[in-house]
Structures are given as structure tokens and as C-alpha cells.
Amino acid sequence: MPLYKTQAIVLKSMKLSEKDKLVTFLTETHGKVKCVAKAARRLKSRFGASLEPMSHVSLIYFGKEHQDLYRLNQCDIIQSFQDIKENPDTYYTAVYFLELAGHFIAEDHPEPEIFHLLVRSLREAGNTDSSGTLCRLFELRIMAHAGYTPRLQKCIVCHKEPKSLWVGFSYSQHGIVCEPCFDKEPVEMRIKSGTVNYLKKFLSLNLNHIRRLKIPKDVELEIESITHRLVLARLGRELKSYPFIRQMAEMTRT
Ligand SMILES: [Zn+2]
Known about the structure:
This protein is of the alpha+beta class. The protein is built from seven helices and eight strands; from the N terminus they run βββββααααβββααα. The protein has helices at 82-85, 88-104, 112-125, 131-145, 193-204, 217-235, 242-253; strands at residues 3-15, 21-27, 31-37, 56-62, 70-79, 166-170, 175-178, 189-192. The N and C termini lie far apart (56 Å).
């Protein structure tokens, strides 16, 4: 039976039986993978604390290729992100990242970029004081990797670059509409063209530079309403952790 060795982030860990756990990983080489961790619920389990959600681990598992469940053989912590778990703001931000990654990534489908985006975003969540900006970047990037990049360069109707101060956003067409085309395509939201520039920046920005990015609050709110609606449209429902990060953001705003 093939043996797999890779890095991963623990997305979810749940009770499977009296002794065993069912653990979902986002791996570097095989996308989302579900493993049975035998005897992981024992007090002196050989897996220790490595199966806690959010942990960055190095793991070995085995099983037939493309099956639903694998057997976990070994799991060692690379980084536990304990500092993130101790602060409610960063904790819920990180939980939101795990939920988004869990929903957008398919099982057994390699997404190394998403894996690295998640690891770096978790590291950044512990360092940044603007988790809102990091959340927006993460939402946009994960959607882009899943094939849902919003069309931001040219108007989706006339295919010209918008020149006006305001542009529209069409959720059904997943892109921007210039002012002269407002009557040709239903525009669900009007945003400043400056906001579109920030959206573009989020899609290309090196994560190491996110701390230097200062976004005006009104722009950040506009971006949030767009990304939130795009996520909702793709997933068809609200993620459980979203109300918490909203609440945290409102508390820091006041
Ligand atoms: Zn147009």
C-alpha cells in the first residue's frame, strides 16, 4: 500500500470512535486528505497535540490511491500556532481561513499554492494588527485559485478600461461595469475605481508586504461586501466562523 509523506495544516479533528479520531488535513501534495488516527483519543497518544486544528505538521499516512479515508501513521508538529489560539481576534481569523480552505479545496486534488497561502496567512495572522485586510486578501486569493477571479481589468460589457470615478459590480457576471454601461448590465453595487485598484493589488501582493498596506476604512468595507458576497455565491451558505470575525472587526472599529 502506498505511503505518503507531506506537510499539512490540520483543518478539522473529530471523534470517530472511543479511541480513534478522524482528521482532515490540507496537505501540500494531495489537497484535502482525511485520515483515521488510531488510538488518538487515548491520553498518551503517540500523536500528542499534533492533531489539533491549525497545527502545521509533517505527516506520514498510507492507503490506496484516491480512496476516501487513509490511515495516519505519523504526525509531528512543525508549528503549533499557539500564539494565534490565545487571542480571540487572531483565533477566529485563523478558524475562518481553515473553513474557507476546507470548502474551496477538493479532496485528493493537489493545491500547493493554497497550502502555502494558508501557512503564510496563519503566520501573518499572528503578526498583523489588521486582520481584516488579511481576511480580504485570503478570500480573494482562494477564490482566484479555485477559478473565480473577479474580472477587474475591463468593463464586462464594452471591454474598455473604465475611466470614471465610480464603477459598478455585477455579481452574476463576476466583474466590473463602467458607468456608461450601467443601463446594459444590472449593477448590484457601485464602488469607487480606487477600490478596484486595491482588489487588483490583493490578487498580486506578496504576503510579506501586507503589513505595509494601509487601506482606508471605507474602501475596506466596500471590499468586504464584495468578497463576502462572492464567497456566499460560490459556497451557497454562510461559513460558521464569519459572524465571529465580523463581530471582532466591529469591536476594533469602535
Ligand atoms: Zn462598459
